[in-house]
Amino acid sequence: MQNPLIIANWKMKLLPSQSLDLARKLKKASSKYAGAEVVVCPSFTEIAQVGEIIKDTNIKLGAQDCFWEEQGAFTGEVSPKSLLDYGVEYILVGHSERRQNLSETGDMIHKKVRLLFTLDITPVLCIGETFEERQDGLKDVVLTRQLHNALNGLWLNKGDKLVIAYEPVWVIGSGQDVDPEEIGHTHQIINQVLYDIFENSVVKDQIKVIYGGSVDPENVGAYISKASVQGALVGTASLDATQFSAIVVQAKKS
Ligand code: PGA
Fold this sequence. Notes:
Order of helices and strands: EHEHEHEHHEHHEHHEHEH
Number of strands: 8
Distance between the termini: 9 Å
Mean pLDDT: 96
CATH topology: TIM Barrel
CATH superfamily: Aldolase class I
Structural class: alpha/beta
CATH architecture: Alpha-Beta Barrel
Bound molecules: 2-phosphoglycolic acid
Helix content: 40-55%
CATH class: Alpha Beta
Strand content: 15-25%
Number of domains: 1
Largest sheet: 8 strands, parallel, barrel
């Protein structure tokens, strides 16, 4: 298996001093991360300083969102080109908290992914069903629709990478474990849709599918080994350097 990709999503949970403190702790722990690909996504306000702290380590810098244009009259928005200047290599797109709280649409998400490919930033496209959709038997339909909306008509050039983060919305922040068998099945569905959209070699070599939703040091091993997921998007447990490092270490072993 390739090196697992473990992405920390700090959301809007830390004050500046806390973000910098956490970044310094991760820097200290970073020798343990060899053999994994580790990305941290701080708030925009701390991107530059966290980037400075982790500069000479094996930890990569990510962002939690961006706008779909490079420049212009878009008050309050953040250009991915500016983020690139600060060393950002990965950007989360379409996180369920943005789809729900900010009514982010499939069209907006599509435009963001498209722009990121042109800038050589790796989009981390977040998809997932709500509890109601799952209860109504609509999970596969919802995931298929989200993937097609975001990716139809796009192509990956040589060297472009794409990450799909499957996050069941009802599991995020809940502390719940999900049966790895179910996650494995869902990842197969996601892969089938990706094969419908892209050429086989692109799916195999340029796209990673990872899992998110209450990932912790105890459950990450099962997700990676039993459900063949290629990494994890970690929220709550990424706010504690010890827990986050334990997740990376477990993921490498699995
Ligand atoms: P969680 O968050 O690990 O707290 O469930 C994951 C996410 O929202 O990306």
